[in-house]
Amino acid sequence: MAKDDSGLSGRVAVVTGAGSGIGRASALAFADAGATVVCLDRDGPAAVATAEEAGEGAIAACLDVTDRTAVRRLVEAVRYEHGRLDVYANIAGAITDRGPVGSVTEEELDRGLAVNLKSLVFGCQAAAAAMTAGGAIVNVGSGTVDGAVADLAAYSIPKAGVLQLTRSLAAELGPAGIRVNAVSPGYIRTAMTEAHARDADGRLVEEKLRQVDEGQSERIPLRRPGSAAEVAAVVRFLASPAASYVTGQIIRVNGGSVMPL
Ligand SMILES: NC(=O)c1ccc[n+]([C@@H]2O[C@H](COP(=O)([O-])OP(=O)(O)OC[C@H]3O[C@@H](n4cnc5c(N)ncnc54)[C@H](O)[C@@H]3O)[C@@H](O)[C@H]2O)c1
């Protein structure tokens, strides 16, 4: 029985990056809405932990989203097993080594492009083929592309591509009843951002975390980091029938840090 009225009850959703942070929170949000959720992550135990938390009907899938064949096979299997695919949330992503465009290595550029852009193209291709009765794709971009952030070349260049991918696909898939939108998070407290506050042994240093939070919060009108759950709420909205006339849009969840017209 649906625990909320988002219209997602009985729907089937695949969530990538579901082992941590925004992906995990989104998978739980879909499960809470009564959807069957496939929790996909390359970190198998983390995917299983999210699926267990999501409850009955949730499934864990351990695979690397940069593997096009594996993504296609998984989506086909979900479609075959459940008879439908309604939602594909492209949330997996990874930060890359810091460095300017001028000196980014080909290897690091390839890594950034693979995990932060090509994998989303693969997911969208597989999902679109499986959404024979329409559906919703939600891509996760990044607020880093709202301005020009130095030294994040291999991360921000692919993330800019995610937004164009979203718009191109929305135009192409609209006639098939498939909506495609993007969420662009600002500074969200997850494992990805906590990495800035870890010591050489990987331990979280609370004082460092407080300093990072304070430094970031100064430029955010809401004066605090966002939570994964706050981003997940928007992912869920965009995937739901409540957003039935919303496509090709980029929704910023950033506490007001950037407010384009
Ligand atoms: N946290 C932020 O402030 C922030 C800001 C802007 C954008 N984002 C974006 O939000 C998304 C989620 O980030 P998060 O903060 O929750 O990070 P996170 O590190 O907490 O979670 C990312 C998850 O993706 C998985 N993953 C990474 N590469 C993968 C691969 N190749 N195949 C399968 N799974 C893979 C990881 O194992 C992890 O579970 C990312 O795309 C990130 O770029 C985050």
Radius of gyration: 18 Å
Distance between the termini: 41 Å
Task: Decide which structural class fits the backbone.
Answer: alpha/beta
Instruction: Indicate the overall shape.
Output: globular
How does this structure look, described?
With 261 residues, the chain is of the alpha/beta class. It has one domain: Rossmann fold, CATH 3.40.50.720. Helices cover 43% and strands 16% of the residues. It has eight helices and nine strands. It has helices at 21-32, 44-54, 68-82, 106-130, 153-173, 191-194, 206-217, 228-239, and strands at residues 12-16, 36-41, 59-62, 87-90, 135-140, 178-185, 188-189, 226-227, 250-253. The strands form two sheets. A seven-stranded parallel beta sheet has the order 3-2-1-4-5-6-9, with helices on both faces. The chain has a two-stranded parallel ribbon with strand order 7-8. Helix 1 packs parallel to helix 2 (44-54) and helix 4 packs parallel to helix 5 (153-173). The mean pLDDT is 96.
